[in-house]
Amino acid sequence: MTHPAVLLLAYGSPDRLDEVEAYYTDIRRGNPPTPELLEELVARYRAIGGGSPLSRIVEAQRAALEAELARRGRPMPVYAGMRHIEPKIATVVAGMADDGVTDAVAIALAPQASMSVEGYRRAVDAACAAVGDRAPRVAFVESWCREPDFIAGLAATTGEALARFPDPAAVRLMFTAHSLPQRVVDAGDTYPSELADTARLVAEALGRATYDFAYQSAGRTDEPWLGPEILAEIRRLGADGATELVVSPVGFIADHLEVLYDIDIEAQGVARSLGIHLERPRMLNDDPHLVSALAGIVERTLPLADAAASTPAAGSR
To answer: Theoretical Cys-Cys bridge with 242: which of 196, 237, 249, 287, CB 3.0 to 4.6 Å?
Structure first.
């Protein structure tokens, strides 16, 4: 008898300022940041209210997906593990094994395949290896950047932002995503092409023939990162005479530092200094479009014919 489940995978982000140092150290593979780097990051979290809402959003996504699968007649537990804060992926996978989960679909809450998604895969593999023979068989979803309900959700929220202007068709539209080191793409990473697909599909759904694309939130290293960079692109648009702009971060699905600070504070400040009215769409978070997209992925990935009869009650974890 199989006991399937879903494992959502998220980056994790500190809820409180006193968690920032441990979080930053974990990101740096155990190397503590310098006092200057730590204070800079603490200041950014302070500017968005003293912590990230990401953990709460992931829990809302988890609960909404579990409810949606039950509504579709596919009841099964949905778990969520984080890379850099608790509950860590290893802890969650061990708990799944304790709960008797035999098969799982793992979905990184990052739609486009990239080095980051590969990091989630390695974390799941290591967690399963630590559990040993009790580990569930995991089907890992590589990418879902073209998922129709995901695209529909981005089109809906971006359309809402455009509609805040008197003449939406005249507003410049810029899609953004997290930058990566250039060397990763030079080695064959498909991230840029997947982002291009997401942006194109959203633009088509909006009936937009033209749009801009920029990368944001590059790491603090000396090596080259993917561009063009968002602040430079906003300045370019300003020099071209643009006065209205929607920045739609299609590489992200939830409110977190890269949206709430890098766009809402940093990019907004540059735009305002140039006389540009910048609007950002609301993030999908636990929007029904996103939840439906994730449920569809689960249904296609796991053999669920006997799920209702063979799984623990929805909500058990």
So the answer is: 237
Residue 317 has pLDDT above 50, yes or no: no
Supply the CATH number for residue 227's domain. 3.40.50.1400
Q: Are 5 and 96 in contact (CB under 8 A)?
A: yes
Q: What is the rounded distance in angstroms from the CA atom of residue 295 to the CA atom of residue 75? A: 11
Look at residue 315 and tell me if it is in a domain.
no
Question: What torsion do the CA atoms of 265, 268, 272, 274 make, to the nearest 10 degrees?
Answer: 120
State whether 168 and 273 are in the same domain: yes
Q: Give the pLDDT confidence of 259-275 residue by residue, as tens digits.
A: 999 999 999 999 999 99
What secondary structure letter does DSSP report for 181?
B
Mean predicted lDDT score pLDDT of the chain:
94
Count up the domains in the chain and report the number.
Answer: 2
How far from each other are the two terminal CA atoms of the chain, in whole angstroms?
Answer: 18
Phi, psi of 36 (to 5 degrees): -65, -45
What is the Cα–Cα distance from 127 to 135, expressed in whole angstroms? 8
In terms of residue numbers, what domain contains 26? 4-144+287-310
Helix (H) or strand (E) holding 129: helix 115-131
- Residue 317: inside a domain, yes or no? no
C-alpha pair distances (Å), 113 with each of 1, 108, 119, 189: 32, 9, 11, 8
